[in-house]
Every structure is written in structure tokens, then in C-alpha cells.
Amino acid sequence: MTNVAVHAEGPEPSLQAHAHDTPTSRTTHVKGQQHPIKLYLVVWGWLFVLSTCSFLVDYFGLQGNLRWSLIVLFMVLKAGLIVAVFMHMAWERLALAYAILLPPAVVLVFVTIMVLESGYTHLLRVIFFAPTA
């Protein structure tokens, strides 16, 4: 028995792809959404103005419901700006915005209901359990 090697003549397959074998494809890398720096500076300016207004409420010595209403108003406006711009909620899908913003709104409604109910309860305590003179 003899060992005979058979050698097939012809082009050997190449593992490397040649430039003329592959179609030219232009891939562009899409970067994330870029916002102009002016937007962030304007929001920063508004946050500064709202913080100054919140400080001025205490500086001018406002008292009572007006004081707390203004402080809460400025706080909510500042929080809204921060959430909308710096946390990019202004550019998110509506479902995600509802998932993040709706629960605190519902909690605020329940807190308002509790505040109104507490006044009613306090009134009942004064009427029924007030010491008689």
C-alpha cells in the first residue's frame, strides 16, 4: 500500500476579506441628544432667581399662609425645572414621565385631603370635647 497525496490545484480560500469583495458601508455613530449650553445656563439663572425669591420671603418677614404658600410655590418651581431639564424628563416618553411624576402628584392630593380633614377633626374636638366653664 502506498500513500498518495492528492493536491488539488486552484485558488485557496482566503480568511481575510478583501476591500473589493465587501460592499462599502458607511456607518455613522449617532451621539446622544446634545442640548445647547445656553439652555442649562438659562435654567441655572432661573434657579438662582427662584432661590433669591425664596430668600426674600424670609428677609421681608412674611408670615402665615402667604409665607408658606410662596415658599412651597418656589420649591415646586425649582423642583420642576430640575426634573425637566437636568434629569431630562422634558425629552422622555410620556409613559416614563407619568411613571415618575404621577405618584408624587397623588401623594400631594392625599396630603391635601389629610390637611382638610385635620381641620374638620380639630373643629369636632373643640365642639364636643371643649372644657365647659
Describe the overall structure.
With 133 residues, the protein is mostly helical. It has two domains: 1-92; 93-133. Helix content is 62%, strand content 0%. It is built from three helices and no strands. The longest helix is centred in the last third of the chain and has 36 residues, at 94-129. The mean pLDDT is 79.
Q: Oligomer, anyone? A: single chain
Relative strand content: under 5%
Provide the residue-averaged pLDDT: 79
How can the largest sheet be summarized? none
Number of helices: 3
SSE pattern: HHH
Point out poorly predicted stretches: none
Record field, number of beta strands: 0
Share in helix: 55-70%
How widely separated are the two ends? 131 Å
Question: Nearest-angstrom radius of gyration?
Answer: 35 Å
Class by alpha and beta content: mainly alpha
Task: Give the count of structural domains.
Answer: 2
Shape: elongated
Structure at a glance:
By secondary structure, the protein is mainly alpha-helical. The protein contains three helices and no strands.
